[in-house]
Design a protein that fits this description.
Shape of chain A: elongated
Number of domains of chain A: 2
Largest sheet of chain B: 4 strands, antiparallel
Oligomer: heterodimer
CATH superfamily of the largest domain in chain A: Vaccinia Virus protein VP39
Distance between the termini of chain B: 24 Å
Number of strands of chain B: 4
Distance between the termini of chain A: 56 Å
Keywords (chain B): Cytoplasm, Nucleus
GO cellular component, one term (chain B): perinuclear region of cytoplasm
CATH class of the largest domain in chain A: Alpha Beta
Largest interface: A-B, 32 and 31 residues
Mean pLDDT of chain A: 89
Structural class of chain A: alpha/beta
Low-confidence stretches of chain B: none
CATH architecture of chain B: Single Sheet
Number of domains of chain B: 1
Strand order of the largest sheet of chain B: 1-2-3-4
Radius of gyration of chain A: 28 Å
Structural class of chain B: alpha+beta
CATH architecture of the largest domain in chain A: 3-Layer(aba) Sandwich
Mean pLDDT of chain B: 91
Number of helices of chain A: 9
Helix content of chain B: 25-40%
CATH topology of the largest domain in chain A: Rossmann fold
Strand content of chain A: 15-25%
Low-confidence stretches of chain A: none
GO biological process, one term (chain B): rRNA (guanine-N7)-methylation
GO molecular function, one term (chain B): protein heterodimerization activity
Number of helices of chain B: 4
CATH class of chain B: Mainly Beta
Order of helices and strands of chain A: HHHEHEHEEHEHEEHH
Shape of chain B: globular
Pfam families (chain B): Trm112p
Amino acid sequence: MSRPEYLAPPEIFYNDDEARKYTSNSRIIDIQVQMSERAIELLLLPDDQPCFLLDIGCGSGLSGSVLEDEGHIWVGMDISQSMLEIAVEREVEGDLLLSDMGQGCPFRAGTFDGAVSISALQWLCNADKTCHKPVQRLYKFFSTLYACLSRSARAVLQFYPENCDQMELVTSQAMKAGFFGGVVVDYPNSTKAKKYFLVLMTGGNMPLPKALGTEQDANGVSYTTKRDRLKQARGKSVKKSRNWILEKKERRRKQGKDTRADSKYTGRKRSGRF
Amino acid sequence: MKLITHNFLSSKCMKGVNVGFPLKISASDVKVTEVDFNPEFVARIMQKIDYPALYTATESIGHLEDLPKQMVENYENDEHFLKKVHHALLQLEVINGELICPETGRKFPITNGIPNMLLNEDEI
C-alpha cells in the first residue's frame, strides 16, 4: 500500500492536482462516503435530531456531504488550502477552517455534539518539520478535541495505522487526554476492506461497538450439521445418540447376546459432578 | 465563515492565550445566503451560543437588522426571535476580512470565506 505521508507534508501533497483527483475519482468518492457513513453509525447520535458536528481533515467535504444528508450542521477543518477551495467550489453547506490538527482544535469548551475524521489521523504520526514532535502533537490534538466536545459526545476517527506501534501511540495519547474507547477493526480478515476506526468516548467507559465482518472466521471452515441431517434422513441415527444405542442393543438382543434392559438412564449423559 | 462558527472559535491554541474568545471581526466583504430554517436546531444550539458575542459580531459586520440586544426568555417557542437568530447565525457569511485575537492582537486572515487559523512555530 502506498503511503502519501512519506511523499510530502499534507499541505503540500494535497495540491490543486491531488485535490482535483479527490473529487473526480469515483472510486475514492465511494470509499470516502462508505467510511463516513460507517463513522456516523459509530457516533450513535440521537435519532431525528440535528447535531452540531466537527469534521477533522474535511478535505473537499466528501464526508461533510454525508453529514448534510443526515441533516446535521458541521464545521470542517483541514490543512490543505487547495482541498478547501474545492470544497467551496462544491458549495458544501458546512463552514470551513484552515487549521492544523496538530496545533489543536481552536474551539470553545463543549462546542460539538460529536466529531468525525476520515483518513486524516495518520498524518499526525509523521514529523514533517523540525519543530514537529508527533507525540506532543497527538496529545495537543486529543486534549483540545476532548475539551471542545460536549459531555457524553463521541469522536470517531478512521485512520490507516502503519503498524501496531503507531496504533498503540495514537490510542495511548487519546487515553492520556481523558478519552475512553479504543479501535474497532472492520473486516479484519480482508486486506482491502479492512478499516480501522478509533472510537473515543467522553462520558465514561462503555462497551465498544461491534466490528463488521467478524462473524465468519477465514482461518477455518465453520461446522455445519448438514451431514448429520442427511444421515438421519437415510434412516440411521446419529452416532452415540440415545436412538443409536437403543438400535444397537436391539440388534444384539436379536443375535442372542447378553444385553442390559433399556431404562430411562440408557444413553443419558453423566451429570457434571463426575 | 458563518457567525455560528465565529461564536465557537477561539484562539486559545496560541501560546500565552487563556480564553481567546470572542475574536473581533473586521470584515471587508459579507455575503447573505439563503439557508433552510430549522427551528429545532436553532433552539438547541441557542443553549450553547454566547449571545453577547453574537450580538457584537453581528453589529461589527454591519448586519444587525433588529436583532434584540438581550436574549428573549422562553425562546424555544418564539419563532420570530429564532428566525432572527437563524439569520444571524447561518445566513450571514464573512467572505473576506480578518479575525483579531482579543488578547494578543494577532490577526487571522479570512479569504474566500475560509479563516486561516494556522499558527507559526513560535506561537505554539
